[in-house]
């Protein structure tokens, strides 16, 4: 957070309420009596906030891959469900049913192996212009596999994509994890906007309990997957940004939404 503030960014401005009001301001400035909303993923979260705050401005709305008002914090059980669907898809495939009869069990075994053994891979980074850098050796950890699989399963349209890589890993070829491992160690900065939008969206007390903040949920993933585990945990904002309930509109001069532990 210090880095972004030193660049002069107002992190408190990155929240869904202000973004929804920005859309309203643009529509008003353009003289648009009605608009058609279209959003995917976070765009649906923003679109729903706009619908709550400015319903009179919307003629129609199209929402794809909806992220509801209380769904910014992803639940471990959601990842587990994706894993089970992925494993079921493989079991129904004539080829993979034989090659990977127990995908979830294979993942569990691979995680145990990464936890117990020192396993390294070599990766050659490339610059934006395509030039190759010096090869680097990376010591893998269970975290690399968790991140890699979670990223692949995060998009339900690509559920089958981890299958070839999982097969390689099960045969002792760890190269599919090289790029993920390098990215995780390269010190790349998370986009301020994406991070702060999630932080400001918050989560209800019930959502936090289901996500493991308090009593553990019943469907705990057997291999420890936690989607978006890289996201820093912050205290719930003083005023949630439109994701929960029906927040009042701020009066002129009232401080913006703030995360308490930035």
- Helix-strand pattern: HHEHEHHHEEHHHHH
Which structural class best describes the helix and strand composition?
mainly alpha
Instruction: Give the fraction of residues assigned to helices.
Output: 40-55%
> What's the Cα radius of gyration?
22 Å
Report the total helices: 11
Task: Describe the structure in your own words.
The protein has 11 helices and 4 strands. It is mainly alpha-helical and 262 residues long. The strands form 2 sheets. The chain has a two-stranded parallel sheet with strand order 1-2. Helix 2 (16-29) packs across helix 3 (42-53). The longest helix is centred in the N-terminal third of the chain and has 16 residues, at 76-91. Mean pLDDT is 77; it is low at 213-240 and 242-262.
Report a brief summary of the structure.
This protein is mainly alpha-helical. Helices cover 42% and strands 9% of the residues. α2 (16-29) packs across α3.
């Amino acid at each position: 957070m210090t880095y972004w503030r030193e660049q002069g960014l107002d992190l408190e401005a990155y929240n869904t309420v202000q973004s929804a009001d920005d859309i309203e301001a643009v529509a008003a400035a353009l003289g648009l009596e009605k608009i058609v909303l279209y959003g995917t993923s976070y765009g649906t979260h923003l679109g729903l906030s706009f619908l709550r705050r400015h319903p009179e401005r919307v003629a129609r709305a199209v929402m794809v891959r909806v992220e509801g008002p209380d769904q910014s914090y992803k639940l471990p059980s959601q990842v587990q469900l994706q894993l089970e669907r992925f494993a079921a898809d493989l079991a129904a495939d004539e080829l993979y049913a034989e090659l990977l009869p127990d995908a979830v069990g294979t993942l569990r075994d691979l995680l145990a192996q990464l936890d117990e053994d020192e396993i390294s891979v070599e990766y050659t980074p490339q610059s934006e212009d395509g030039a190759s850098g010096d090869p680097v050796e990376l010591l893998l950890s269970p975290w690399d596999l968790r991140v890699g699989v979670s990223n692949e399963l995060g998009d339900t349209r690509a559920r089958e994509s981890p299958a070839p890589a999982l097969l390689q890993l099960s045969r002792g070829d760890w190269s599919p994890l090289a790029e993920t491992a390098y990215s995780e160690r390269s010190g790349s900065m998370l986009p301020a906007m994406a991070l702060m939008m999630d932080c400001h969206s918050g989560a209800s007390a019930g959502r936090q309990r289901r996500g493991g903040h308090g009593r553990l949920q019943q469907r705990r993933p057997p291999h420890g997957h936690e989607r978006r585990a890289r996201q820093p945990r912050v205290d719930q904002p003083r005023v949630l940004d439109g994701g929960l309930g029906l927040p009042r509109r701020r009066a002129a001069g009232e401080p913006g939404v703030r995360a308490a532990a930035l």
